[in-house]
Amino acid sequence: MKTTATVSLAVALSLFLLTCGSGHEADENYYLISANIQVPYWKTAGAGFIDAARDMKVRSQFTGPDSYDPKAEQQALQEAVQKKATGILISVTDPALLKADIDNAIAAGIPVITIDSDAPESKRLFFIGTDNYQAGRIGGQRLAKELKGKGSVAVFTIPEMANMTERLRGYRDALEPTPGIKISRIIDIKGDPRIAFDTATQIVGNDKKEKIDAFVCLEALSGKEVATVISNNNVKGKTIMAMDTDPDTLDWINKGVVSATITQKPYTMSHFGITLLDALYHHKPGKLDSDWARDSLSPMPAFVDTGSALVDKSNVDAFIAANKSVTGAR
Question: Are 265 and 1 spatial neighbours (Cβ–Cβ below 8 Å)?
Answer without folding.
Answer: no
